[in-house]
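Question (not urgent): is this output format expected?
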Amino acid sequence: MLRFIVRRLLWLMPTLLALSFLLFAWLRSLPGGPSTALLGDKATPERVAALDRTLGLDQPLLLQYLRFLGRILTGDFGASLSSSQLVITELSDAFPATIELSLAALIFAVGLGVPLGYLAARRQGSFFDNATIIGTLVGVSIPVFFLGFMGQKLFASGLGWLPVSGRFTAGLDHTKITGFLTVDAILTREWDVLGDSLSHLMLPAIVLGTIPLAVIVRITRAAVLDVVNEDYVRTAEAKGLHARTVRGRHIMRNALLPVSTTIGLQTGLLLAGAVLTEKVFAWGGLGSLLAEGINRRDYPRLQALILVAATVYVLVNLLVDVSYAIIDPRVRVR
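Got this back:
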């Protein structure tokens, strides 16, 4: 198992290196450039050329990339063109917010999606199964931003059950340790902060997790239907094994391979969906930084955000590979 993980980790290095080069080259190919964005209305050709020389942007692309690579290896992503703050500082402030929201959405999607998919498959053709299929189609079809506005209108503004936006109530004192509000509240035993942060987290997490929930339900249902008719399942049932043993060891263990792939892909897509969700709920995470960076052509911020998102996506795929090896030991020797 350790050899399998090490082999996958070694593959991460060239993957991330290639991603960083493609990202660097792509951003440099966009119209305008960092110098034009910095100068704004004063961007005459002479001033742009002078600033390019100052920033080293007139040098060969490969040399620029090597300098960029050397800086990011030390955690230096430069300063944001929008706020003049160090990009690493912006990331450290916004990263916990996005991860907390994405993990909450993933827990909601997986915790509800896998059991619903299993029950729908075991009751194939029933009213519950048909209702689940219709519900997942609706869940996939509704845009995230529309669902967010509807949730705010109904549960926040209408019923008043949940806060409208933000991560916590304005003016609430809380101790910052890790940046994750729920984790910090538990560590410091600030239970009022924990309750407040969870109430703010609930609605955006449900909104963000709706599409992954629908996809996971459908994939789980299809995977279970493929497995329940296999000979080894019928043999296990004929031998009189306990239903829990048949369900856990013979059905779900074999059905979890495609489900694990789907969960990994949906985890990566959560980062993309977080952009819209964070804008709707004024969440203040990486999605908000990314939207502002695109509008203002903030190249240092965009480089860092896209590279971080790509790194997270690659690491999630590593976890999916590891889950394969845990679920099916035959994968380790391939």
